[in-house]
Design a protein that fits this description.
The chain is an alpha/beta fold. It is built from 15 helices and 10 strands.
Length: about 400
């Protein structure tokens, strides 16, 4: 990492001309997000860079192999597409891959469990054959049919005791069979509570008890294990997590910049400081610019298709690049081990904002951008956002 004489100077003004091309409905939001990133980078300038270059692994989410996709993963075509996607990421210089393996897709009682396990074994081998590191998150599956091909019904008698036992079984299977470099056993307490209906998981006490149970007595091998939160949760979660025996790392998910609790980038800094003060490693297995104003944020950040729909439009590209640049600097200054750009499909395609695309529903924009991305993956074409990430990796 090169010493940043003034990181703020490098970013100031980079998006002034781009803002003029933003559609009127989003001009104020674009300006506000741009300003908030500038304010954050000014704070980073006041943090001394590490005395020596730490090795930060730049990763991408493997959304093409997300277990929510369901049985269509278990086809030769799905595996071939995954391998091609990994080739393109390797071409960009990406050094790590993160996979979301939501409970209960890898417990022995799940339908076609052996086939899913065989698929992910092969994917893990493909990742390692390219010299990449592997990070895995284990949270609860979403029940929304826009996200999950086969929604899982958690309402039929699930208790926290059953969830603890089942999650622990899946975590141990992952450690034994896939041997990830990093394994996050729980993250985003409000999302996990919402998906399972176990509302105690949204509390500091309930979430830390869950993590403590899952981690107790695990055979971790060479994997680093931990847990984390979205930065929209109170820092008290991290303060309690770092006290759990066997927890080696804190995993921060970074999306909204501001919200009802104030400045979430300030919270990210505070959480990172808590982790470092308690000698825990830091990773971020999900980060992307959340394109919402504070008054648009509800209880859950994770399942908001109307907000995520905005990501597909090409006019956001300069601001996405600026956000990734700021996150790279944040991770370097706070000595993270691993970071993940979440929406990897946007490294291959965007949609232009037109009257037609503006009127699309979220369940229409997603297939449209995915189809365009697949064409560009085959043609070996990248978006400016991908090239910015490549530049960040090369400059580290």
């Amino acid at each position: 990492m090169k010493p940043a004489l003034s990181f703020m100077v490098l970013l100031m003004g980079t998006n002034l001309s781009h803002a003029q091309n933003v559609p009127p409905p989003f001009q104020q939001l674009y300006t506000d997000l741009d300003r908030e990133i500038d304010q954050f980078t000014a704070k980073l300038d006041r943090i001394s860079p590490p005395s020596r270059d730490a090795h930060l692994t730049y990763g991408v989410e493997l959304r093409i192999a997300d277990c929510h996709i369901g049985p269509s993963l278990l086809t030769p075509r799905a595996f071939a597409n995954t391998a091609l996607y990994l080739d393109r990421m390797h071409e960009l210089g990406v050094q790590g891959i993160k996979i979301s393996l939501f409970y209960p897709c890898l417990v022995s009682t799940f339908p076609r469990y052996e086939e899913y396990l065989a698929f992910y074994r092969r994917v893990a081998q493909q990742i390692r054959s390219r010299g990449m590191k592997l990070a895995i998150n284990v949270n609860a599956r979403f029940n929304n049919r826009n996200i999950a091909a086969i929604p899982y019904d958690y309402t039929t008698g699930l208790t926290i005791a059953k969830y603890n036992e089942g999650k622990r079984e899946q975590v141990q299977i992952i450690l034994r069979e896939l041997k990830p470099d990093y394994l996050t056993v729980a993250n985003e307490p409000t999302t996990e509570a919402s998906n399972t209906g176990l509302h105690g998981l949204a509390t500091v006490e309930g979430f830390t008890q869950h993590v403590r149970f899952v981690l107790q007595g695990l055979e971790t091998g060479s994997s680093m294990v931990g847990a984390g939160v979205g930065t929209w949760s109170p820092p008290e979660f991290v303060a309690r997590l770092v006290q759990i025996p066997g927890l080696q790392m804190i995993d921060l998910h970074i999306y909204p910049l501001q919200g009802p609790r104030g400045d979430y980038l300030d919270s990210a800094l505070h959480m990172a400081e808590i982790a470092r003060a308690n000698h825990k490693k830091l990773i971020s297995t999900e980060m992307w610019l959340y394109k919402a104003a504070p008054n648009e944020l509800g209880h859950s950040v994770a399942a908001t298709p109307e907000i995520f729909k905005r990501d597909v439009y090409s006019f956001w590209e300069p601001l996405d690049g600026k956000f990734l640049t700021a996150m790279s600097e944040f991770a370097n200054r706070m000595q993270f081990d691993f970071i993940t750009a979440f929406f990897g499909e946007l490294f291959f395609a965007h949609l232009d904002y037109t009257d037609a695309t503006a009127d699309m529903l979220p369940n229409q924009t997603k297939p449209a951008v995915n189809a365009k991305a697949f064409q560009n993956i085959q043609a070996d074409r990248f978006t400016p956002t991908a090239r910015k990430y490549q530049e960040l990796i090369a400059g580290h």
